[in-house]
Structure formats: structure tokens, C-alpha cells
Amino acid sequence: MSARAYSSSSRVLWSGTPSAGGAVGGGTVPESICDAPSHERIAQWREQHIQALQNEVLASRKGYLDARSGIVKHRRHVREDLASGTDVPLRSVLRYLSQEELQDALVYLGLLVAIMVRCIVALGDWSGRGMPPMHGDFEAQRHWLELTWHLPTDEWYLYDLPYWGLDYPPFTAWVSWLCAWVAMWFPALRDGLELDTSRGSEAPAVVLYMRLSVLVLDVLIYLPSVAWFISRRYESRSKRVRQIALLSVWLQPMLILVDHGHFQYNSVMLGLSAMSFALLQSKLPHVHASIRGPAVATAALQRLVLDTLSRHVSLRYLAAAVLFSLSLCFKQMALYYAPAIFAIMFGRCVGLLLSHQWLRGMALFAGLACVTTATFASVFAPWLRSWTDLAQVIHRIFPLARGLFEDKVANVWCALSVLPVGAKWKLQHMFHVSTLAKLSLVTVLFAILPSCVLLFLASIESVYRESIMDDAQAEQVVAKVRRHAGSVASGKSYSRLASSMRDDGGCARSLAASVHDSSRGSDRHSVASGSLLAGSTSTLMRGADGHSRPSASITPTMTAIRPTSHRSSVTPSPAAELFPYTLVSTSLAFFLFGFQTHEKSILLPLLPLTMLMTVKGDRTGAGAVAADWEWAVLTNNVGMFSLWPLLLRDGQGLAWCILLLVWNALIGYRPWEALHTTRATFVAWLSAAAHFGMLGLLLLQGFVACAPRIAWIDGLLLRYPDLFPVLNVLLCMPVFMMVWLWSLKKHLEMTLASGVLAITKTSK
């Protein structure tokens, strides 16, 4: 609006006579202000037009920001595409869907695809189908539903142990009871869950319900847990990279075939573990948060205090302890992750103590002990009344009498047992089972010690760096308050601003000292009501009586200063960066050297290793991420091959082939592609050799099964009925051993690069 029009409008309003047609300077005077006094009409008219102009400015600014945001996102996607190098089918599909304006629905489409694949696999056979009298794992899970529903808790671990006696921790039994409770709502399922008389039941209704129970638990627990972990670990990467990483895990063929084909509930244990992993992905605070003016600086100070409280109280660690305890109470194989969990949690407690935060260090340690004990006590409650009952539960969970390993599993003990040596030189003949258990325990402890020690040191270093960055952030916030306080709105100096804050909030100390002390996590007075453990959330915006009462110097600026977004940190702590590799190392050590290992236990090291996958050819981290991707795909494929005898026996051979080929095609993995380059890495050569051996064994086994009967081949198979499973073990075990050694090498590289090994020197 021009100055002349504005002056004309003012004269009309002062005279109280509207112009022809009710127009005032090109605008219409509302009737509601014509009857008001002239000065009120002028004020209202000005406010209306100023508000309209402000709305136009905000709208134009929003359009500009949206356009700029779109350009930034496009450039970011281009940079990510260039950084990740190779184009793969999965990325091409996501790019096409993004062009069709389905960007926001990609995760839901991926979820539907993951569910559909699971449903298709569930249409096939299962473990022990039509194979009386014991059948297989499907019958074991069905039997536990009837057992937990019809019997009291004190008989769950005692009833008819030879016929699929319950041998998992009580949380599995409680989940089975819950599934049986839901099943009793449907009359068609009751006959299939009758005690004893329903043994071996394969009625269509029972099979459908059992399959649906696995699918529902998978969708409710495992899929969102993995998505949460990936969103936290890769929050600094583009949305497309996160989507590719998420779909790579959701469509991982091994878990789908074991749970929805062979039939088990591993997704519950893995999902609870993944949730605890996500909670332990801690971030370092960002030092360069943008602050404009004292009002926003005040909000930044409050955020700083709240973030400091949340970080030092470590509620996420307590929640992670509860979730991992539930995972342990569901399946004892979650112990494979326990050393890494203990190392990162205990390292944080020690780090707080070394940082002179004794109270918080002891409080965190006591809190972790309390929530873990309470979780186990609540799950084991019915058996805590009698030591005999508790001992029976523990005996069923850890059965030493079963031997060093079960079936043909690709670990060290099984590989040693099939070597062509005399029977008297076999380990199971040389030593008693209790001696073998001790030998296995000592070997596992030595195997997990290096990675756990390095993670422990990394956790201490993370606490140390948090305290340093807290100081830097607090000093920067205070410096920005001092710079901006005297030049905004009221013109009051920083001393008057701080004085009014102290008068309103009752803070006796200076603002800078308060922020500094609270950010260090000490037990001294802070900006949070003079104490970190009592009072209101923030005295900067509250009075002594606890009610909201902004100071006079802040009030005029609250509406004058444009709010700014808080830029949070995306820098993982040294412990969070190393943590997934420690999970891989410890779980592989248990798989290779542990006692009573199952072939399906390879799922545990595959979970953290697969969640480390991003995109093929990702050059982030100077090629380190691309190498991780190569190792992860190799381990997945070799792990799938190690389960080939089991899944073939279950009638899942066709699903095994299709899922393995489709998954590798989607992520763009070609095992022999790297050999055509002049700079092939060690993992490329290892992968090519392993895949050549796996393909050769598959072709040989297919030839023997389909070729005409040959006398010498029949004689060989009659003498060595487990020939192909043994060859499978001898091929897969060395690859798993190389992956474990690579994980140790990765620990050493990362700790040296991040300076964790120099922690003793830097802490002084």
C-alpha cells in the first residue's frame, strides 16, 4: 500500500465518513469498526492490514522455503547416488516410485511386499509334516500351546519331557499361553489344542492359525524394530538409502524361511533385541546449534538442560536392559548378544565414574541391575517359590546332556568331528561332556574378549566426549546470549537480562556458571530450578511459585523473533559406531565355539550384520561401508547355504532357491563381478571362491539325485549317508571363521581411527 493511499484512508477514518462504495484507500472498512471511536477504528484497521501483509510475506516465504527444501533434497539424493556408486534394481524401483509421487508411501509398500513374501512362503511345507511320531518344530510349538493352556505353571517344565518337553525360557511359555488363549475364541481350533489327544494335529485350521501367529508377531515386533534401528543409525543418510537398507533387512531370506517355512518364532527374540540395539545408538550433542536472540537462546538453554538430564539419567539404557532381558527370557540364544550389551552398559557406568559423576554412575549401575532383576523376576515368578522348580527350569534351558553340537552345524566342533581321523581321536570320545562344556566356555571367553574390551573402552570414551561437548555447547550458548541480548527489542544489556532471570527464577548463581555446571552433569545447582533433581523444569521461564512468568526483558521479544529449528546432532558416539560390529563378533564367536549350537543360530550374527548393509558400492567412509556390504552379503549367502540340508528336508528347496536369487538380484549382488576389475579385494576373492564351491556342491548333489543309479555312488552314499551335509559344514565353517576375524580387524581399525585406544592418555 502506498503512503498516499494510507494517508487518504486515515483522513476518511478520522472524519468518520466512508468513501463511495465503502472503499477506503482501495479497501473496505468493516461495519464492526465504523461504530467504534476513531482512534480505535484506526488501530483495528492498521492491525488488519498489517496482519494481511504479514500473512502474504509468510506465504511467500513458505513457498520459497518449500522450493529451496525441494532443491536441497534433490541435490542430496544426487550426492547420495554418486556416493553409493553402482545402480541396483532396488534403487531403480524406488526411484521410479518416487517419480510417481509415491515417495511417502514407499515404506508401507515395502511392508506389504514383506508380508506378501512371508505369506507365500507359509503356503509351503513345514518341519516334520507327515512324519510321525515326533514330527518336527511345528508340532513342538503347537504342543506348547496345549501344554501351557491345560496345565498349571509348575508342571510346564515337568510334563512328558520325552515328547517335546518345554526347553525354552518362560517368556516363550507365556507367549504360547497367550496364543492358546486367543485360539480358544475359535471353536474350530479347540480340538487341535486338546491335551495329548491332539498330538500330531495338522488340521488346516490349526496350520492356518499357527502360521498367522508367527506372521502377526513378526509384523508387530520384528519389522518395526528393524525399521527403528535403521532410522536411528542412518538418520544422516538420504531417505532412499534408508529405504534400501530397510528393505534389504525386511526381505532377508533366511529368517523368512526359518520362521515362516520351517516354523519357529525367532522374530520375537530378534525383534526385542533389535529394539534394545536401537535404544543404545547414542548420539553426541551438536555444538553449532543456531540461536537468534534471548528468547530463542532461553529455549536453547532449556533444551540443553533437558537433553543433559535425559542423557545422564540414561533412561534409554534402562529401557534397553528391559527389552534385552525379555529377549533372553524368550530364547536363551540371545546370550550371544549379552557380552556386547554388558560391555557397552558397564562401560557407560565406569565412564560416568571416571568423569567424576559418581552419583549418576552409581545410579545408572543400580538402575540397570534393578530393572534387569525385576524383569527376570516377573517372568520367572511362578518358579521362584521353590528352588527345585527353578533348578528344573534352568536344567531344561541349558541341557548339557545333549552334547557339544546338534545335527550338522557349520561350527568348529562339528567340523573337527567329521575330519577323517580315528574314532578315538574324536573330541566326544576323548573327553566327558562336562569337560567339553568347560572347554567350549573357555574358548568362547577368549574369542569374545578382544571385541568386548574395545567396546568397553569406546563406551568410556563416549562419556568423556559427551562431557567435553557439553562444555563447548554451553559456552557457545552463553556467548550467543551475550552477543544478542543487548541488540534485540528492549535494548537491555545482558547483565539486566540475566538479573531479571535470576530474580524471576530464584537462581543465585550466574547464568554461565549454571549452564556450565549442569552440562557437566554435576550435582551442583543448575538452571533447572537450582538443582538437577528437584524443582521445575526450567527457572528461566518459570517464577518461584512454579507458574509461567516470563521476565520483562523477554516478553517483548517473544513475538518479534522468528523461531528457529533446533539442529540436533547426527554424529554417533564411538560406542554406538562400534556396537553393531561387536554384536557380530560375539555372536559369531558363540556360534563357532559355543556349546550345543544349532544350525539356525546363524540368524543371530546375521541380524546386526545385515543391518549394517546400505547400498552396493557405497563409498561413504572411504569405501569402508562398501566393504561392510560385501561381507554382509557373503555371510548371508553362506548362511543360507548352511541351512540348505535342513530346508531341503522340510520341503522348502524351491522357496530357498527363489528367495536367495531374488534377494541377491534386488540388492545387485554378483559374486564374480569384482574379479573382472584390476583391484579386486580380499573379500571379493573369498566371495568368488565360496560361491563357486557352493554352486559346485549344489550341482553335484543334483546330479547324484537325478542321475541313473551307479553302483559305486550308491555304495559311497550308503557308507557316508551324511556326505553332502558334511561337505556343507567343511565349506561354510571356514567362511564364518574369516568373517569373525574380519570383525576383529574392524574393531582394531575403528578404535585406532577414533582414538579410543588413547583414552587413558586423553583422560588425564
Automatic annotation (TrEMBL):
One of its GO terms (molecular function) is dolichyl pyrophosphate Man9GlcNAc2 alpha-1,3-glucosyltransferase activity. Keywords: Endoplasmic reticulum, Glycosyltransferase, Membrane, Transferase, Transmembrane, Transmembrane helix. Its EC number is 2.4.1.-. It comes from Malassezia globosa (strain ATCC MYA-4612 / CBS 7966) (Dandruff-associated fungus). GO terms for cellular component: endoplasmic reticulum membrane. It is found in: Endoplasmic reticulum membrane. Residues 537-571 are annotated as: Disordered. Belongs to the ALG6/ALG8 glucosyltransferase family. It comes from the Eukaryota. This is Alpha-1,3-glucosyltransferase.
